[in-house]
Amino acid sequence: MDLSKIYYQVRITEGDMPKTACVIGYKAYEWLVMRFGLTNAPASFFMLMNKILYPYLDHFVVVYLDEIVIYRNTLEERVEHLRKFFQVLRENLIYGKRQKCEFSQHDLHLLGHVIS
Q: Which of 8, 43, 65, 105 is most buried, judged by most C-beta within 10 A?
């Protein structure tokens, strides 16, 4: 699952908003949500995923940057784990793009490697 838009779903702490300011014309604008180009965006995403997915990490979930892999041996286990995973995302108001999801893959192409 690709959560590339996740950065726009993570709110910036109020005290850190001025650090994101940019000036256009005579006005300064501050970001209210994380954007991908910010220095700590990947670290913030990783901390969020560690926090909400902690019980499942390395049991059936692996997170790398904005990619998430859910794995298991049997179809029944995969379905149950996907149910738990999507429930956690729903509870935390995090949404992915259905078009970027791949389910029940025998070979997974990830970071230039083929995992089977």
A: 65
